[in-house]
Amino acid sequence: MKGTFFKNQWFLCLSVLFMWIKTYLIYKLGFDLQIDSFLQEIILLMNPLSFILPLFGIGLLLKGNKQRLFLLIANLVLTIILISNTIFYGFYIDFITIPVLFQASNMGDMGSSVKELFNPLFIALLLDLAVLAWLARTHKGPAEKTASGTIKKYYAVSAGMFLFNLALAEAEQPKLLTHSFDREVLVKSIGLFQFHVYDTISQTVNVSAKAFADEDSLSTIENYTKADYSKPDKNKFGLAKGRNVIFVTLESTQSFVLHEKVNGKEITPFLNNLVKKSYNFDHFYQQTEQGKTSDSEFIVGNSLYPSLSGAVFFTKSDNTFQTMYKSLKQHHYYTSVFHANHKRFWNRDVMYKSFGIDRFFDVDEFTVAPETSTNWGLKDKEFLEQSASKLKNLPQPYYSNFITLTNHFPFEIDDKDKLIDEYDSSSDLLNRYVTTVRYEDEALKHFISKLKKEGQYENSMIVFMGDHYGISEAHNKALGEFLGKDEITPYDTVQLQRVPFIIHIPGVTDQQPETVSDVGGQIDVRPTLLHLLGIETKGDIQFGNDLFSNDRTPFAVLRNGSFITNDYIYTKNTCYRQKTGEPAENQNECKPFGEKANQELSLSDKILNGDLLRFYEQ
Ligand code: GP9
Ligand code: MN
């Protein structure tokens, strides 16, 4: 029987075999998956089969050329999925999700580096298709329908394969499907194609969550956030009461460049000096995901976690939000955003309205000339200068967010704007990055003197925050060279998610600067700033805590489920000691925080997917 099956269905078997090999090849050569054990390697090797077998098995229901055609098309479609993921991965070190496909602007960056992303492997991936097509032309498909008994047996084997794969994966990583926020872990365990099915199902479930949500859904969440609230420090509460807030979002700026030099010259001389006169948070983590800058805006404004896939700015634009801007308004603040890009880009015009932001100064409000522009448009120096002169006309007190752009991928600026040498490493991107960060730093210095001239400095609270990483894991080798490390471990990757967060209150922090080394993240910005302004956040639904509060647990969760405390870093299934980077002897030490991390991410997702804030009265 077995013999006849292979003899009759040799084309199907060959198609399965080729697809299996190709998928495994891409796993090994197209992605950089961290494999820690032999069992993980076995799971990785076997998991393509639990998808390919049932899919290609449909061919058993077809006769003759129809079967051949079906198998060729299925092979082609899966190959396209493999190639697209490899290209996307090469750029974002991530896998494609459904919302990202509908977010064309997110892919904008990739265009400029398509050449770099082409992989000769892609040609090899198409070779089997040519062979199979030739075989299909020269050998006709089975003339008879396959016996139903054979089909049943085939599917019994496929189902067995699927369950075996799932059981092994769950054994390796308990609660895999319900609590995995890390796409790499999912792909490694259940497989790439299965991940796409999983993603499609979870997107559908998310959409239906809104229809079934009611007021009661919010009460468990309110109980959690109320219990988690931390009281402000009496000495800090209201310290900047009534002041204007100037919040500067630093594009792609990571902390690893602070206090570093290239050929004897500091990369961020202005910021290095400013931290000595400010509240400086040196263990502050970015928590964005696929929505990049827009995610950072979302986190700061809402103190909620962003979506695991796609950008909230696109996927949840119909939701009701109870933002920091709305609280500020109740305290007579006028809120605005300055950003020299088109207002519709990233759906900002729609989102800002629903956030309750009073005014959006988009690119049309600025004078932009070729000599003052670079890749992404108006250079930061001109952008900040023109913005500063608009401030005096705003109603006071104001809260304004300035989103910089020059330090954006691909990190290119005119030679005359290069104030330091490029770095010398194996990555051109990192080499250029230090020069654009240096430029940005100069633009900030210029901004502060302009604010002083415009009379907008003394009575303000000035905040600088990095939005997300600029140098991805694709450049780990060069990052290792920069940091003087042989290799970048998953622990280092988490540490690299630190971004600057600096609060400068003229007349206050220059007298008594402070460095806060407790762990925190973007989610904590909202309560921290509001409390400094003397605005209580006790009743707010928020997952962040005031970074100055004495009863706060130092803690930050990244959107992929990795988390950091003052003592530990948990990532990629390993609990590390925060101070040394060594794995903890007792891996269970991270556990209690892991539960908190999962709970926060899940509750925050519930709010977004169920649009629960429409039931909340502020
Ligand atoms: C562009 C700004 C930067 O308007 O959002 O883009 P991002 O950093 O999100 O790619
Ligand atoms: Mn950005």
Automatic annotation (TrEMBL):
It is a multi-pass membrane protein. It comes from the Bacteria. The keyword Transmembrane applies. Keywords: Cell membrane, Membrane, Transmembrane, Transmembrane helix. The chain crosses the membrane at residues 12-30, 42-62, 69-92, 117-136. It is found in: Cell membrane. InterPro entries: Alkaline_phosphatase_core_sf (IPR017850), LtaS-like (IPR012160), OpgB/LTA_synthase_biosynth (IPR050448), Sulfatase_N (IPR000917). Residues 243-535 form the Sulfatase N-terminal domain. Belongs to the LTA synthase family. PANTHER family: LIPOTEICHOIC ACID SYNTHASE, LIPOTEICHOIC ACID SYNTHASE-LIKE YQGS. This is Exported enzyme and transporter. It comes from Bacillus atrophaeus (strain 1942).
